[in-house]
Amino acid sequence: MKSYNKLVRDLVPGTLRASGLKVVTRTIHGKELLKALRAKIDEELVEYDAAVDDDHAAAELVDLLEILTAIARQRGYTEARIQELRADKAAQRGAFELGIFLVTAE
């Protein structure tokens, strides 16, 4: 039996059961869920960095967006509100589209 001890997408346990595996899960909430979501960011960033092509990279970006959306929901924000805040910040400070890399400022 392999131990995972990590947060997984909602349909993963059913998929594993359908393949004949015995699965043990538990449901987490609150701070424990936020901590697990934060750990999931690190896991997905490693997978993104290891992506061998654009399709694989896109799949990992989708996972990262799903995790960030889940964190926002846990903190009481809707996707629409997060997008609104993102747009406001981009209007005030810009985005990252121009690739500006700050070297020094005196």
SSE blueprint and pairings:
Elements: H1 12-18, H2 30-49, H3 54-74, H4 79-93
Helix pairs in contact: 2-3
Structural class of the helix and strand makeup? mainly alpha
Continuous helix count: 4
How far apart the termini lie comes to 58 Å
Helix and strand pattern: HHHH
Low-pLDDT runs: none
Oligomer: single chain
C-alpha Rg (nearest Å): 18 Å
Q: Care to count the β-strands?
A: 0
Strand content: under 5%
The average pLDDT is: 97
- What does the main sheet amount to? none
Portion in helices: 55-70%
Shape, per Cα inertia axes: extended
Describe this structure in words.
The chain is extended and about 60 Å long. The protein is built from four helices and no strands. The protein has helices spanning 12-18, 30-49, 54-74, 79-93. It is mainly alpha-helical and 106 residues long. 59% of the residues lie in helices and 0% in strands. The model has no long low-confidence stretch (mean pLDDT 97).
Give me a quick take on this structure.
This protein has helices spanning 12-18, 30-49, 54-74, 79-93.
Keywords, separated by commas or semicolons:
single chain; extended; mainly alpha; 106 residues
